[in-house]
């Protein structure tokens, strides 16, 4: 059940009132659920010097490759995205049809330098 709000973050180039191109942070709020990083995910990532902390589950149609997200005023970097229904179709004989649009974002916390 997706009861929480996640904000997808992306830098976009826009034109200001003077006609100059500037970078601007685009914020896209989406519904999500929050899951823990599994033990196997944690150890597999650690072998590649990654430190996953949290998994956000969103609708795959809401995601456009954003590299960072914000949840409860904390910023996270997306380490990888995962479509469990497609990538793991062979794991379950009875996949949940409700998971067809499920996308997992495996994330780690990032330091924000005060100018978020």
Q: What's the SSE blueprint?
A:
Layout: E1 4-15, E2 21-35, H1 39-46, E3 54-59, E4 68-71, E5 74-82, H2 84-87, E6 102-109
Antiparallel strand pairs: 1-2, 1-4, 2-3, 3-6, 4-5, 5-6
Structural overview:
It is a single chain. By secondary structure, this protein is mostly beta strands. The longest helix is centred in the middle third of the chain and has 8 residues, at 39-46. It has a six-stranded antiparallel beta barrel. It has one domain (4-109): Bacteriophage SPP1 head-tail adaptor protein (Thrombin, subunit H, Beta Barrel), CATH 2.40.10.270. Residues 87-93 have low confidence and may be disordered. It has two helices and six strands. It is globular and about 50 Å long. A hairpin with a 2-residue loop joins strand 4 and strand 5. 10% of the residues lie in helices and 47% in strands.
